[in-house]
Design goal:
6-stranded parallel beta sheet; elongated; alpha/beta; 17 strands; about 25% strand; Rossmann fold; Dihydrodipicolinate Reductase, domain 2; about 450 residues
């Protein structure tokens, strides 16, 4: 191997928490292999963190530590800025300032890019710098690189992903132990799988940010999180997971984006997935993404979606990419969203009411004659055909002498708007005793 005489590329790190310290440690540990791959050294030379003492302890004496992130962004001795602060506020300002200063940016900030990506990528394009974000989606799984480069020959048909480890851990525990959501959430918080404020995870927002980025890369559309349909797992009950299992399904929170006749679907919600699908068997805090391409068929990407070193793995892969392409003509780099900036599509995001899918319905009904006929009559009147019906014995559901029972219905494909209308009619029946549970069903065939 001919020796390289390129000086190391110098990196400034904004935030040295879990991912930042992981990035520093992996870079140190594997520096020789990374240098052989990148063609030059990659060194973290400057770190900004409000907790200066903690930062100094994490990186040792050879790295300059400051408490003001703007000093890193403005430093002439930094070539690449890694943003690991998170959120939309100061992180956005710092990323735009770094770009304006002609620095490349690596970020794990899916929220920032899903909401402000269009502005950030346009600024980077103008300045001829790269914004790399492999770590923003599915942690250590190289799904962004697969979509941007590995599958570039394909017309992507759809993507479905378990892209939030917290919710997948909760659903796995609910299934394994037969417990309700609230009980498992407390346990997930105790074990450190869920934040003290788990809203972004359990309400589906985090998965929404990630699927928005994948959708933009897969279909060449702008990032537009505001048009995504987002529904979390807080309404799921243990009995829904049990009934799904009896019908041959598992319930997973999926981020789905799909090419449809009238545009691009972009949605996050709990879904029944056939138990025989590989993705249905992804348990605990693991992530998995299924991509359907016209040429390649179905591909599956599986691994750790969070954590110090898995996420650091993705951050450093981006650093190596930038080190290799640092001196290349910007026009010859892979575009941020895979498609050339002047060739982006204006395909609309399909409103949820127009999405066509199939459904699982659970109705708590009075245990009396004629209830099933009324419910199936409403569905038939709406043009919705039934795939399967499961009616529990009343004493099995409510105990001996119970006057109510559970009615489970699986439907064939229909338009969401039609289902919404039918649900309103069914809910108005005096024999329907509680709010109806509706979960979408995805065959992923």
């Amino acid at each position: 191997m001919k020796p390289t005489n390129l000086s190391p590329i110098r990196v400034g790190l904004l935030g040295i928490g879990t991912v930042g310290s992981g990035t520093y440690n992996v870079l140190q540990r594997n520096q020789e292999e990374i240098r052989r791959r990148a063609g030059r050294g990659i060194e973290i030379t400057m770190v900004a963190d409000l907790d200066v003492a903690r930062a100094k302890a994490a990186v040792g004496p050879g790295v300059q530590v400051v408490d003001d992130a703007r000093k890193v962004v403005a430093s002439p001795d930094v070539d690449i800025v890694i943003e690991l602060i998170g959120g939309y506020g100061i992180a956005k300002q710092l990323v735009l300032e770094a770009i304006e200063a002609g620095k490349h940016v690596v970020t794990a900030n899916k929220a920032l890019l899903a909401v402000h990506g269009t502005e950030i990528f346009a600024a980077a394009h103008r300045k001829g710098v790269m914004v790399a974000f492999e770590a923003a989606v599915a942690g250590g799984i190289p799904i962004i690189k697969a979509l941007r480069e590995g599958l570039t020959a394909n017309s992507i048909q759809w993507i479905a992903g378990i892209i939030n480890g917290t919710t997948n851990f909760i659903l796995s525990e609910m299934r394994d132990k037969g417990l309700d959501f609230d009980v498992v959430l407390k346990e997930a918080q105790r074990l450190g799988y869920a934040e003290a404020d788990p809203t972004f995870d359990i309400e589906g927002v985090d998965a929404g940010h990630k699927v928005t980025l994948m959708s933009a890369i897969a279909f060449g559309i702008p990032v537009q999180f505001d048009k995504a349909y987002v529904e979390g797992i807080t309404g799921l009950a243990a009995q829904d997971i049990r009934y799904a299992e009896q019908l041959g399904y598992r319930i997973k929170l999926l981020g789905i984006t799909k090419r449809a006749a009238n545009g691009i679907e972009l949605r996050v919600h709990p879904s029944l997935v056939p138990a025989k699908r590989l993705i249905a068997n992804v348990e605990g805090a693991m992530n998995a993404v299924v991509v359907q391409g016209d040429a390649v068929g179905t591909t599956l990407y599986y691994g750790k979606g969070a954590g110090s070193e898995p996420t650091a793995s993705a951050v450093i892969a981006d650093l190596v990419d930038i080190a290799r392409l640092h001196t290349a003509d910007p026009e010859h780099r892979v575009p941020h969203l895979a498609f050339q900036p002047d060739a982006m599509s204006d395909l609309p995001v399909v409103p949820m009411s127009d999405v066509i899918t199939s459904y699982y319905l659970r109705l708590k009904v009075a245990d009396e004659a004629g209830v099933l006929a009324k419910v199936t009559g409403i569905l038939a009147g709406a043009g919705i055909s039934i795939d399967a019906v499961l009616q529990r014995e009343a004493d099995e559901v409510g105990g001996e002498g119970s006057t109510h029972t559970d009615l489970i219905i699986l439907t064939h494909d229909c338009q969401e708007a039609k289902m919404n209308g039918a649900l309103a009619q069914m809910q108005a029946l005096p024999t329907v005793l509680a709010p109806i549970t509706r979960i979408r069903k995805e065959e992923l065939a």
